[in-house]
Amino acid sequence: MGAGPLAGIRVLDLCHFLAGPYATLVLADLGADVIKVEDPDHLDEARNVGPCWQEGCSLYFASLNWAKRSFAARLAHPDGRTAVLDLVRSADAVVDNFRPGVMAKLGLDHASLAAVNPRIVTCSLTSYGETGPYAPRPGYDYTVQALAGVMSLTGEPDGPPGKAGISYVDHAGGLAAALGVCATLLARGPDGPGTHVDLGLLDVQVSMLSYIASWQLNAGFAPGRTPSGSHPSIVPAQTFATRDGHLSIFVGNDAIWAKLVPLTGEAGLADPELATGQGRYEQRERVVSLLAEAFAREDTAAWVAALVGGGVPCAPVNDVGEALADPQVESRGLVHEAEHPAYGAYRHVRGPLPQLGPAPVRGAPLLGEDTVALLEELGYEREAIARLVREGAAVSPAVVG
What we know:
Elements: E1 10-14, H1 19-29, E2 33-38, E3 53-54, E4 57-58, H2 59-65, E5 69-73, H3 78-89, E6 93-96, H4 102-105, H5 110-116, E7 121-126, H6 141-147, H7 168-188, E8 196-200, H8 201-208, H9 210-219, E9 237-241, E10 246-250, H10 254-264, H11 277-282, H12 284-295, H13 300-309, E11 314-316, H14 320-324, H15 327-331, E12 335-340, E13 344-349, H16 371-377, H17 382-391, E14 394-395
Parallel strand pairs: 1-2, 1-6, 2-5, 6-7, 7-8
Antiparallel strand pairs: 3-4, 5-14, 9-10, 10-11, 12-13
Helix pairs in contact: 1-7, 7-8
């Protein structure tokens, strides 16, 4: 807090699980003061997600909530609710990812919050948006991948539809929510009224269909699942088995193809018929077969060295541990270490723009860890704070009195 492009911006995180917390994590990593607001009777489920724990802290939760502060108050208690609304008065934005109608039921929808703070920006990140026939449906990353057509494109042709290896719908939705908050804060300016952002995960995924949607809408062409993760129209652009692993290459144009051919040692690839993208597309099986034979003869590292040296885009197919240890990841400062007095040193990946924000110095907070400090910032007297904690309206592990 206090550095980065969003320094001075306060965001309240009324989120759970992944998409919403990732959105506010991105904002925190850019310098915003993000306060995670939880009702102790309805905690963020991520606090209890395994299988990995560190001194009682869920690593799933820790990965999504570092650099944030925690404010815990019971909304069912009149004084707890008042404290939350006082916090709203101090905030610039509120982000949630509950189903449509939940925030209104809690009295925390945009209209209710704008009555307290007319300048508040609110963003609700839901599965299907707040309008349309699917708005009331529950949904998760998995269901949106299926509905958006993405699963139909994932996996091997002779296998069942598959899902992406990470929860990319939630992460992409979180990025879009962070962008939406930044855009509305910019539009609001120093003196304007706030507004509400209605963002559906499905909206983001349909937008990301981009060129595939264009093919379908304008030419009636819909690619299906392709072998080895291959591109539907660019050849070769896929993974290949090497002698000891797998290699990913992407020959995006004819100039790259001309660089690749002599490196493979396969005379058949020098056929003039394969010199153009159209020719390679029409003879995909021949191209892939010859390349598969070549790549199988050497180890992945040898091929990466040769191809990178020859100007051909490629990469080893790393596992997660190898990816996190990659020298490029290290040089870009994408892995960071934070400290927490309860569960110690915690290593985590940064947001997508680490060069713009301050280096985070604290891990994910314990429930209510910052309740007392935040109430003091709001002007509450120590005696009043002690009464709130004593009566259960607010929750804090700190000793007050």
